[in-house]
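Lecture 7, part 2: worked example. A protein chain together with NAP.
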Amino acid sequence: MKPVVPFIPEAQSHERNVWQRELSASLSDLAELKPFETLSEEERRAARVAIVANPDPAHVAALPNLVWVQSLWAGVERLMSELPEDGPLIVRLADPQMAETMSEAVLAWTLYLHRDMPRYMLQQRQGIWQEHFLKTPAERTVGVLGLGNLGNASAQRLKANGFTVTGWSRSEKTLDGVRCFHGPDGLKQLLGEADIVVVLVPLTDETLGLLGEDEFKACKQDAAIINFARGPVIETGALLGALDAGHLSHAVLDVFDREPLPSDSPLWHHEKVTVLPHISAPTIISTASRLVARNLKAFLEAGTIPDHVDRKRGY
Ligand code: NAP
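Predicted complex, written out as structure tokens:
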């Protein structure tokens, strides 16, 4: 008999049927994927691993023998805050395709800023014909905050496209062709040199409000910000202050304190802000399903648990 793996997606997810179909196909002979609501008492007790996406914590708690959960999301701050510390281990989605997708977005929006597109769009609306001085990519320093799966791939892609790239992480790192900084002093140094700052750190106790008034003051005049990580990593009021004061030139924001972004947010209509609806690196269901199936296979056949979140570190 195939083991049953509970599936606990977000309650209102319109994608749950697609996930159910793709995951079931990827798991095929290995295991039977069953939505939480359809599990028998015995199946709940027998479950040692579950697949989750923003699950109802009560459903996870109703599986008393879970060893780990596989999240279908890369960011797991909500899962960490909702599941008890002595609960199952949390494995986040670390899909190489997602890193590829994110690096494409980072390159696209870096080019958008590099080629002054927000300014030219504004000029068109105002009927202004005016050329601005163009730098080469090498003359443009892009600082990437966070050098994990997504940050590392993005730094490499920027470098391959001729930009001067710096990076910042928690621990000390060496990356070919990328000047690396770490720790609080390293952050100030990176900010002081970057023309474009790309935020790709997870949301943790340490990164909550990471970029506020002091950090924006430490940025170069006319620097631009791209936030593809999580909204609360940036203090929105401080960002608006730095944009309005003319110190920062533009912000591309894909993530917000509240999503969807409330209709009365000043960010919607700010001419120095580009608002994106959390689309920089959506999970690709086909590749993610195959990765999840590989993780489950390693566990069901050999007891191997994939790399999981370090609760103390917060990511
Ligand atoms: P990851 O592999 O865990 O990498 C995180 C990176 O951030 C690491 O380099 C880590 O440093 C660094 N970091 C963590 N805390 C830090 C701190 N306090 N100071 C300095 N550096 C710190 O994560 P990932 O897969 O790249 O994903 C990053 C985040 O992107 C996710 O958590 C998620 O919130 C967000 N995301 C957004 C989207 C979207 O569509 N907008 C999609 C996917 C993910 P070390 O290397 O020293 O550990």
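The chain has two domains: 4-95+283-302, 97-275. The CA atoms of residues 191 and 219 lie 5 Å apart. Keep this in mind for problem set question 3.
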